[in-house]
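Lecture notes, unit on protein representations.

Consider one protein chain, 363 amino acids long.
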Amino acid sequence: MSSGSYFPPPVRTVEISKKSGGKMLLGIPTVADRVAQTVAKTHLEPLVEPYFHKDSYGYRPDKSTIQAVGVTRKRCWRYGWVLEFDIKGLFDNINYDFLIRAVRKHTNCKWMLLYIDRWLKAPFQIQEGTLVQREKGTPQGGVITPLLANLVLHYMSDKWMGRNYSLGPLCRYADGGVVHCRSEVEALRLRENLEARFGKYNLELHPEKTSIVYCKDDIRRDEYPNTSFDFLGFTFRPRRSKNRWGKYFINFTPAVSNKAAKVMRQKARRWKIHLQSDKSLDEVSRMLGPIVRGGISYYGCFYKSALYSTLRHLNRMLVRWAMRKFKRFRRHHRHAKYWLGVIAQRQPWLFPHWQMGVRPTAG
């Protein structure tokens, strides 16, 4: 690489399904190319990180999705309106000239510029083996791709908004984010200006994932057709909460989204726990425990009770496992549930959700 003689091979593409429907192309670099991109990222990242927006949380060191959700939650209490936006096909439509100019602002290393240019222009290799030349976009799946996308969006949206608007704060995660506004008029104006700004670079806001939301609660009681939005697996909407003195009130706050909960239930069904009757309960616990703990540690950070229905679904699957494993329970669902409930009381550490108090009961 130090001699400039490295040429990236074609990037193999694989179609994967999006959670929201449709397909997206994922680029899979070779192992050698991933090493080369890591070298470039290690050099470039320290040069650009100090300039990035403090509330840009996607694919950055010491930044996380939970931080983004927590910041957005607090700001929804202070600002009555939110513009939720998503850039349609960002990775497939990044403008090469704009990206190279952005990189030049932070480094004059000729090898860095040379290799980024080569990675951008490396052809796709589709499943049939045909090579497809590219004139725009950067393949998702590359090591350096998230850093380049953040660099483009820093100049295209973050810095531009800070220079031209004194509205509420921005929180961005990769190609989506939220901007807090003081009124619907401000949100509408900002949406129009963002559409024009991205349009200059042949990008557009996703029509289904971009919306203006009213943060309704006990204080803001006006009527508006849209009072909820999804962000990073959480749904922000008015919810019944309890304050420190035990009084209930309506609060605009996040909890696990219906889509995320559905994905967790579908994943649990694919485990086919009821077919693991050859395993003991301890073995089932070791198999499922880390996965359940991961879901709870993320989605349980805010409004944990919204997870309970999904965790009860897991208990029902364990009851079904017990009915299949033990002959005495095969026609006695209630007895199997009671048996598991006794074990949950005696050994709550077996499953993370049992430690939360979501346990099977005889009722």
